[in-house]
Every structure is written in C-alpha cells, then in structure tokens.
Amino acid sequence: MTYTVAVSGASGYAGGEILRLLAAHPDIEIRTVTAHSNAGQPLVDHQPHLRSLAHLTLQDTTAEILAGHDIVFLALPHGQSGQYTDALGDVPLIIDAGADHRLTSQDAWDAFYGGAFHEPWTYGVPELLVGDGKQRANLRGATRIAAPGCNASTVSLSLAPGIAAGVIDPGDIVSVLAVGPSGAGKSLKTNLLASEILGSANPYAVGGTHRHIPEIRQALAAAAGAEPASIRISFTPVLVPMSRGILATSTAPIMPGVSDAEICAAWEDAYGDETFVQLLPAGSFPRTADVLGANTALIGLAIDRAANRVTVVTAVDNLVKGTAGAAIQSMNIALGLPEDRALSVNGVAP
C-alpha cells in the first residue's frame, strides 16, 4: 500500500529533513508540501538538495490543503500546530514535530510555553523505557504522534535505563549539551548568525529555563514509574559551531550498594537489541561526526567512583534521530511497516 503524505513547514530544517527521508521511503507518496511566507515558491528554492522533489511547489498551510491525505507531518514552530490538528480529525495519521502535543501537564505547558494547551499525543521515542516495557508498544496503531524535542529525547535515552533499573538517583541529574544551531530552526535570529557562532561556544536558556526540561522530566518519570516532580535536573545547552548534532554529557549519583556490573547491565539490557540506540564498548565515547545523517544514538558509559556518579555521553543528529528520523520511525511502527524503513544507522563521513 502507498500512503499519501502532506508535510507542513516544508521550507524549514525539520520539514526538509522529513522530506529527505520520506523521499527514499517505498511506501510513501509525497503529494503536498506547505509553508507560510514561502508559499507559491518551488520547494527546491528552499531545499535545493531535494532534487527528486523538484516538481513540488509550496502551498499555503491551511487545514483544507492538509486534509485528504493518509498522513500529515506538521513541522511548525511551537504553538502553531494545534490550530491545524483540531481541524484535521479525518486524517488517519498525524505526526507533530512541534511541542504542541508532547506534554501531559498543562501546568508545565503554561510555565515553559504558554498559549493554548492541547491534548497530549503518543510520544514518538520508540526505544524509551516506560514502566515494564518500551514506548514502541504504545506507538503500534497510533493515529496521533508527538515527535520528540531533540535535546529532550537525547537526555531521556541517555538516563532512562539507569533510572528504570534503580541504579542512579533521579533527584540530582546534571546534563550539559553541545548543540548545533539547526535545532533552533531556520528563522533569522542574531544569536544564530555565523558571525556570532563561528569560533565561539554560547550557552543559552541557562538556569532551568529551557523548554525541553518538562519533557525530559515527563519521559524519565515514565521510565521510573514515578511523578515528574521526582526528577530533578540541571540542564544547560551550549550552541557550538556545527550545523547539526547534539553531544549530551549527563551525570547522576550512583545509588547506595549498586555494583559496576549492575550499572553496566542496566544500559546493556535496555539497548542490547536495539538498532538505532547503541551502547559503545567500555571506554569508548561517541562523536557527533559519527551520527551525521543517521537515525542513530550512540552512547558511551563511564562509572566515576571518585565522584560516585555515572556519566553518560550520547551523540545524535538533532535533525534525524532528534526529530525527523524519530518521526518516521514512529510512523513505520504505527503503520505496521518495518521499523527501519527509509532510515539508516550509517552516518556520513568525513
């Protein structure tokens, strides 16, 4: 069966990456691409690397244009998806790459985003531990999927195994992330100009203000079978001069009486049979270059007994595993297709 697809926000980074991956999907027909200010222009004027889609023209983003497809991807700025999802009830499958349907708590939404709160959808991180299983089970047959925030899913995948196994303390997590500016979208902003970023590392959203914090707490609480209030995290992202990528270094205290073997087993048991989340051998740690263009999260684990903490270093491509790849992987699961269809574990080098 071939599924017809519409992609909104198609002139942006996330929309372009969704299109790049879908273009190689044998079960997908990309029928419609939409934008706002760029409507009426050829798609390749804004995504010149998508040569196989040169025949498509960006249309206006309206519910009427998005309707009538089997699948709709929404790659819009936070707070803009809800106005369309409310009007697309007849679309069999909608996947939102924005934040509008990620959070289960309206209080958390109000504190970090503001504006209209929309119902939470099935979270699109298949490998995430949830209670006694994984989020993959909840995605099977799903009709509404909230693709994750790239920073949030990276930190959640990093720490969920240790929290679920009870080998680390979720009340004292510290995560520092080196992130590429493409995660902030394509809109022109002074702090994202090349002249501001090149040759510099720039922290932002410091002091517990980043919008992905409640999403991380929600995901890790689900892994622990606890309330989000039990998760305490100091989260600091730092913009670095690479267009793509996240390198997340997360630490948490070791619980009393836990052995090194029990710590290692928590991550090995969680990801030993996963295709797209891979634990590296002891003493090895990932680079963002190793996952460029891949739907892969690579994880390195260290046990620091002097500090009594576990350190987890995780690398992802923020536009693939962090956003578009996670969305398409979740789509494949929801539709009963092979989970890895149109997705690769191989990065691009050099």
Q: How large, in whole angstroms, is the Cα Rg?
A: 19 Å
Widest beta sheet: strand line-up: 3-2-1-4-5-9-6
Largest sheet: 7 strands, parallel
Low-confidence stretches: none
Q: Could you give the distance between the termini?
A: 37 Å
Question: Percent helix among the residues?
Answer: 25-40%
Strand content: 15-25%
What would the average pLDDT be, to the nearest integer? 96
Give the tally of β-strands.
16
- Which of globular, elongated, flat, extended, rod-shaped describes the shape? globular
Helix run count: 11
Structural class: alpha/beta
Order of helices and strands: EHEHEHEHEHEEEHEHEHEHEEHEEEH
Explain what you see.
The chain has 350 residues and is α/β, with parallel strands linked by helices. The chain has eleven helices and 16 strands. The strands form three sheets. It has a seven-stranded parallel beta sheet with strand order 3-2-1-4-5-9-6, covered by helices on one side. α1 links the parallel β1 and β2. The longest helix is centred in the last third of the chain and has 16 residues.
Structure keywords:
globular; 350 residues; 22% strand; 16 strands; 7-stranded parallel sheet
